Amino acid sequence: MSDTKKVRIFMTGVGGQGTLTATTLLAKTALSQGLPVTSGEIHGMAQRGGVVESTVLIGCASPKIGTGEADILVGFEPMETMRALPYLKPGGLVLSSTEFLPPLSVAMGQQECPTIDDIRKAVSACTDKVYFMASQSIGLKAGAVQAGNIAMLAALCAAGELPFGPEALAETIKANLPEKIQAVNLKALELGVKALEA
């Protein structure tokens, strides 16, 4: 365990986006590589529109991520990326969608929604290791909007911060997802890697 690179990943999104599926796939990919991994759901609301937060910790004893401890922040919804920034350690990696799925409070007019420029500024103030991508559009291009999360995981695997690459994720998709949705997700994986390189 001591020679495993420790990586703390904080993931956040909105209920109905598939954040927990993405968390499970990432954890299973780490396991398939023989890495010690812990994953958990910190805060989750199954209903659409609720905030969902989860963690994947590779090579770490504790399953928790405190303020300023996340090596990587993955935001499947940009407003949630901004909200989760306190968890990011200085200089950590941020991978965020640019496409909004406003939570209920914004949809009902109880809260203002920041612009993508506001979010980019907030993220840039914390780190210069930032990737933004239009994950839902990439998902649709692959064949299903939910596949956008796979595109983001693929980009994360290709960013060089994890002890494995996109090929390991592809194997996990083949081993764990129903055959009928594998092709869409493998296409999303390919598009996610390309988006990172663009």
TrEMBL record:
Keyword line: Oxidoreductase, Pyruvate
Record InterPro entries: IorB_Oxidoreductase, Pyrv/ketoisovalerate_OxRed_cat, Pyrv_flavodox_OxRed_cen
Pfam families in the cross-refs: POR
Lineage: Bacteria, Pseudomonadati, Thermodesulfobacteriota, Desulfovibrionia, Desulfovibrionales
TM region positions: none
A molecular function GO annotation: oxidoreductase activity, acting on the aldehyde or oxo group of donors
Protein name, entry field: Indolepyruvate ferredoxin oxidoreductase
Entry keyword Transmembrane: no
Residues of the Pyruvate/ketoisovalerate oxidoreductase catalytic domain: 15-193
Secretion signal, residue range per the UniProt entry: none
Species whose genome carries this gene: Pseudodesulfovibrio cashew
